[in-house]
Design goal:
five-stranded mixed beta sheet; alpha/beta; elongated; Rossmann fold; about 625 residues; 19 helices
Length: about 625
């Protein structure tokens, strides 16, 4: 019978609609289900003084976090072909640069497009070094100058950029929170409505991270705190307890858009959890057992209280009640789907849960909130297998920890994007490539990693890797080569190609000159105006300018680019012909006519391309307008 939604009989409430919109889009402005005016003002970039008591997490410098979030950036991403693999065909991205600025740069192109985020940020152990504003009133210009310090090879230096966050520091927790908050805030914008985020953490900051995530994502979107048992034992140097675990906080962007999550049971899990066999093994596989006795959390139901006949002809009564109705139990008895376990007090009744259902389909399984069969040593072994040296990168996360999370929350068929903006050695890319190989998936990744300099006495530096980013890139290259070999060696080739390439892009200043607002004299102003006759930087490369325009037009960085020669001039046609970009120094009427004939929706060209010919520019604008083409001069 068809059912229809019912009217609730109330009038339209624009206030309620606005409230629900704010709650969905800006959960960070709510506390205990109500709009917090202080948080709302902060989100809008206003400075506020907190002098009244309220529930929530506060710290020195929190107000400045919102200022950093609100400040726009003129930075861009420069393509680096020589470091890339399959640059023109790959859909994967590896971005070098400070992740706060990169997240800002990605906002326009990737807003609401990422399905899953996994990050493994600094844990704030007292010996970590990371970027944080040690002067809470630091301006954006000062910040950019500080994080932009590089050596002669272009590698970011520790001095002046990374600050060691010692436990002796008076702002020890505040520094870490000020580093994390704006990054998590911007990351949420990039998630799809059904997107999810996983954040690895340990005991040092898990309590603060939970409060920050509740504020940014909304406490109602908390899914679970996964406990990862990361090592076997040991810990003789521990003072009190042997710490064996870490955490992974799991949140959705909007739990109302998140479908139930199921994980595929591999052979190891089948052997581990489905331990028993009976006569149905050939058709339904092994089984596991579950008590039929209901827990106290289940409401009282009298129809669930009845005796069940035991193997010794006695009857078993529940201490409270059963989970199943009597009719279902009788059917299970006929089908031999109950297990009776002898105890000192008689028998306990358990249900048999087979690996396959009655139709032979593999039973869908939920992932457990404890991961206890994957260890840190596995991550170290992966580095040894790839590089032959465990010291190339210490304590990387194992791919076996990430693969179930990837499989759980992404679709193997759809080209879904996974983002990791604390990429480290590149475990996330490794896990995605491996998972795609196993299930034929089309998942894509965006990795962001600082080109943090490796110490001169480190094994990585001795092997020729100047930065952590260099280690990650080489790891992905080696993993790609191994997967290609495995694919080629398969006897049953399916012909499906796995994307093992990646585009390398570097965070750089804009290719366009930035107008200075601190001009002190008429002479300096005149000099600046003359310099802006050509507003591109003298060392700007056409491809870099093109990618900056792609970013700032809101297009995907993997958008198809076709280079056409029109009248001896290069015109880039993008997005299936919807956008045409011309970056030539000189244009003429023939080129304008040819571009119009392509019939794009939008055309971009440089102002200098008209060489001061205002008539040509005006004619071009009129032609575009007549052809209903959005024409922009940069």
């Amino acid at each position: 019978m068809t059912t229809f939604p019912k009217m609730d009989g109330t009038s339209y409430s624009p206030q309620q609609e606005l409230f629900e919109l704010l709650q969905a889009r800006f959960p960070d402005v709510f506390t205990e289900g109500k709009i917090d005016p202080i948080r709302l003002k902060r989100s809008l970039g206003e400075q506020v003084n907190v002098d009244s008591e309220r529930y929530g997490l506060n710290w020195a410098g929190k107000s400045d976090c919102y200022r950093h979030i609100q400040e726009s950036t003129t930075a861009t991403l420069k393509p680096v072909r020589k470091e890339s693999v399959d640059f023109d065909t790959t859909q994967n991205l590896f971005i070098e640069g400070d992740n706060l600025e990169v997240l800002k740069v990605l906002q326009k192109s990737y807003y609401g497009k990422v399905k899953m985020i996994y990050i493994d940020p600094p844990y704030n152990t007292g010996s970590d070094s990371f970027i944080y504003p040690d002067r809470f009133q630091e301006s954006q210009d000062d910040y950019l100058k500080r994080i932009g310090e590089k050596d002669e090879s272009g590698n970011l230096m520790r001095d002046g950029m990374f600050q060691k966050n010692s436990r002796d520091n008076g702002h020890y927790h505040s520094n870490w929170l000020s580093m994390m908050y704006p990054r998590l805030f911007l990351a949420r914008n990039l998630l799809r409505e059904d997107g999810v985020i996983f954040v690895s953490i340990d005991n040092n900051e898990v309590h603060n991270l939970r409060l920050v995530m509740d504020e940014i994502f909304g406490a109602e979107n908390f899914i679970d705190c996964i406990i990862w048992k990361k090592r076997y034992g040991g810990g003789s140097k521990e003072k009190y307890l042997v710490s064996l675990h870490e955490y992974i906080l799991f949140y959705s962007k909007d739990v109302n858009h998140l479908d139930p999550l199921f994980v595929h049971q591999d052979e190891a899990n089948i052997a581990r959890y489905y331990k028993y066999k009976d006569e149905k093994f050939e058709t339904r596989g092994p089984y596991r057992t579950h008590p039929l006795e209901a827990t106290k959390s289940m409401g009282d139901r009298k129809n669930l209280i009845y005796p069940i006949p035991a193997p010794d002809k006695t009857y078993i009564n529940p201490q409270r009640q059963w989970l199943w109705k009597k009719e279902r139990v009788e059917q299970a008895l006929k089908n031999n789907e109950l297990e009776f376990i002898k105890t000192d007090k008689g028998y306990s009744v358990h249900t048999k849960q087979y690996w396959r259902d009655e139709s032979g389909e593999v039973r869908q399984s939920k992932m457990f909130s404890i991961i206890d069969n994957v260890y840190t040593q596995s991550g170290t072994n992966e580095i040894i297998e790839l590089f032959g040296n465990a010291q190339i990168f210490s304590f990387p996360k194992p791919t076996a920890l990430l693969k179930p999370l990837i499989q759980l929350t992404t679709d193997s068929v759809q080209e879904e994007i996974v983002l990791d903006f604390f990429a480290g050695s590149g475990t996330t890319a490794h896990a995605i490539i491996a998972q795609n190989y196993e299930d034929g998936g089309n998942r894509k990744y965006i990795l962001v990693q600082l080109p943090e300099a490796c110490a001169d006495d480190s094994e990585a530096f001795k092997k020729g890797y100047k930065t952590i980013a260099d280690v990650a890139k080489e790891r992905i290259r080696r993993v790609g080569k191994e997967i290609v070999k495995k694919k080629q060696s398969k006897l049953n080739l399916d012909g499906k190609k796995i994307d093992v390439g990646f585009k390398v892009l570097e965070l750089e200043d804009s290719n366009f000159k930035v107008w200075r607002g601190d001009v002190e004299s008429a002479e300096v102003l005149l000099e600046q105006m003359e310099a802006f006759v050509d507003n591109t930087n003298p060392d700007a490369i056409k491809e870099s300018v093109l990618y900056e325009l792609i970013l700032k037009s809101g297009l995907d960085l993997n958008v198809a680019v076709e280079k056409r020669d029109i009248g001896g001039k290069a015109v880039f046609v993008l997005n299936g012909g919807k956008l045409a970009v011309c970056l030539e120094d000189e244009l003429n009427q023939a080129v304008v006519d040819a571009v119009v004939s392509i019939k794009p929706e939008k055309v971009l060209c440089l102002d200098k391309s008209f060489g001061g010919n205002d008539q040509l520019k005006t004619n071009a604008m009129l032609q575009m307008e007549q052809a209903k083409i959005d024409f922009k001069v940069v």
